[in-house]
Amino acid sequence: MSAALKIPDHELPANTEDCAKLWGMSPDYWLRTIACKPTFPKRIARRPATWIIGEVLEWRRNNRE
């Protein structure tokens, strides 16, 4: 069993492409309009840009535009 299977879904990492798909945007546009907001969750890695998917989803639920 791989380590990824032991991590709860809400704690899995998500890269720029994964997050952009949630908004239906290109990764570049998503970085320039969503990820740059001061209230958006902090990255867990800068290169490649990575966030915790549960935090991203919670932010999205709380900040629908």
Number of helices: 3
Binned strand content: 5-15%
Summed over residues and divided by their number, the pLDDT gives a mean of: 92
How many separate domains? Answer: 1
The helical percent reads 40-55%
β-strand number: 2
Q: Which structural category do the helix and sheet elements fall into?
A: mainly alpha
How many whole angstroms does the radius of gyration measure? 12 Å
Global outline:
globular
Key phrases:
65 residues; mainly alpha; two-stranded antiparallel sheet; 3 helices; 42% helix; globular
Describe the structure.
- The chain is mainly α.
- It has one domain.
- It is built from 3 helices and 2 strands.
- A two-stranded antiparallel ribbon has the order 1-2.
- The model has no long low-confidence stretch (mean pLDDT 92).
